[in-house]
Each structure stands twice: as structure tokens, then as C-alpha cells.
Amino acid sequence: MTPRSFLLTPELAEYVLASSEAPDDVATALLAETAAMAERGEAPATFQIAPEQGAFMQLLTRALGARQAIEIGTFTGFSALCIARGLPEDGSLMCLDRSQEWTAVARRYWARAGVDDRIDLRLGDALPTLRSLPSAETFDLAFVDADKTGYPDYIEELYPRMTPNGVVLLDNTLRQGRALTPTTEDDHAVVALNAALALDPRWETVLLPLADGLTMLRKR
Q1: Residue ranges of domains in the chain, CATH in brackets
Q2: Rounded to two decimals, what is the model's pTM?
Q3: How confident is the model at residue 1 (pLDDT cuts 50, 70, 90)?
Q4: Alpha-carbon gap, residue 134 to 152, rounded angstroms
Q5: Cα–Cα–Cα angle for 30, 33, 34, rounded to 5 degrees
Q6: Which residues have C-beta within 8 Å of that of residue 162, sequence separation ≥ 6?
Q7: So what's the pLDDT on residue 7?
Q8: Which residue(s) pair with 168 in the sheet?
């Protein structure tokens, strides 16, 4: 049940993991607990990012020198764990999520990893919370992995709050390949967004074929 980049065969996925920095004991335990929850039907397996995506996001956070980050859609906290580990000790990550149950799992692992003091978890609908934040250039990095129809609004609200050269990461932008043949409302929303972002002069945009598609935006 451990997620992998859908474009890869199981054998290539194993090779990718073996050729990357391995998750430590805390991250491995979090991935395993989340997978077990999915097997029991207590959580959707599709909500979990792949381990190689987490490794990439942790490395990117460090490489950017990000100090202030924000995440929209936290689930059981693996992506937040990776981002928080990439921040300096005095850095901070604001997490926005609706679920107290799933984020309770996240809190346990953040504490085990010793990064809970860097994470500000705010429960509730993300868009009103985001709109309540000062419209000042605050965040160096943002990760969006929430309701797909809400992505355009999240991006609009994030734009004035990102620092110059700030990076926004958007998850699931290939839709398991359905970006070519959209069938659901979420699929159509993401396809329209992908087309719009490629032409949006405010952002430098690239869609990376990582996991289920990870779009990277740099604020010009």
C-alpha cells in the first residue's frame, strides 16, 4: 500500500527508492501506519504522497533556504514532516487541514521527529483561514494537496503571500494519467488549471512527472 509514482513499474519504483536517501525510522513508521489505515478503510490511500516525493520536497526546502512555509492539506503528516525537516531550526511551517483525526496521527510523528515546535497546525476550512492571513510576502514555500476544485482559489490567495522567487508545489496534477482523458470534476478542474498556469505571466511553471504529477511554480 506504500504509494509510488504511477508512471513507474513496481521494479523501477523499488530502484528509485533504493537510489534515493531512505526514509528514517520515524518516516517509515508513519508511512506504515498510514498504509495500514488505508487497508482498514480508515483513510484513502490516494491521499499519501510517495516516499520519493517526500525526499524531493525535503531536499528542495533545504536547497531553497526556505524559512517560512505553508501546507494546504496535511492528512497524516508525512509531507509536513519532510518540509519541516528541511527548514532551519527557527523556521516554521503552517499546516491547514480539516481533519482532527488524521492530523492527530501527524502530531504524534512530528513530536517523535522533534519538529513539532516548527509546525503550526490550524484546523478548519483552508480557504477562509488563508484569506484571514495578512496579505504580505511571507512564505518561501507552499505545498497544496487538498480539494482539486479549490486549487485556483488557493493559488490566488497564495500569490500575494509568497516572497519573490517563492515556490508553490501543487500535487496530483497528472491525475493518474487522466489529465489526457479527464472524467471527474476534479480531473477537469486540474486540466483547466494546468492550461491556465502555463500561460500565467505571474509564475514560472513546470509540471514534473513525479508521483502523480507535481507542478512547481516560481513567483516572478
Answers
A1: 10-219 (3.40.50.150)
A2: 0.96
A3: very low
A4: 19
A5: 85
A6: 137, 138, 139, 140, 142, 168, 219
A7: 86
A8: 142, 217
